[in-house]
Amino acid sequence: MKHLNIRVSGKVQGVFFRASTKAVADQMGIKGFVKNKKDGSVTIEAEASSFILDAFVDWCKEGPEKAVVESVEMSEGEIKNFRNFEVVKKNLLW
């Protein structure tokens, strides 16, 4: 099991990036969350095996059809044992 913090920049808000990310994560059995950031990027915390996360990051580099991904930054983090994958609608701590 591995935990990745992923930041996706580009035209990634208003293009169903979060909903698409959840659909892909659910299909792949990934646990964690995705949320929009005020700077226009999307942040993802994802937990799964290294093999699955590698494929997921490849998907993040493309995103859904209308997205224009300019960069994907990753760092490993501490396992949080998420129960599912969620789209976070609002975060008051932005």
Protein topology:
Layout: E1 2-11, H1 17-28, E2 31-36, E3 42-48, H2 50-62, E4 68-77, E5 85-88
Parallel strand pairs: 2-5
Antiparallel strand pairs: 1-3, 1-4, 2-3
Structure notes:
With 94 residues, the protein is α+β, with helices and mostly antiparallel strands. The protein contains 2 helices and 5 strands; from the N terminus they run βαββαββ. A 5-stranded mixed beta sheet has the order 4-1-3-2-5, covered by helices on one side. Strand 2 and strand 3 (42-48) form a beta hairpin. The N and C termini lie far apart (28 Å).
Termini Cα gap: 28 Å
Strand content: 35-45%
How many distinct beta strands? Answer: 5
In angstroms, what is the radius of gyration? 12 Å
Can you list the strand order of the major beta sheet? 4-1-3-2-5
Biggest sheet, open or closed, and with what strands and sense?
5 strands, mixed
N-to-C series of helices and strands: EHEEHEE
Give the mean pLDDT.
Answer: 95
The total count of helices amounts to 2
Structural class: alpha+beta
Shape: globular
Name the helicity range: 25-40%
Low-pLDDT sequence parts = none
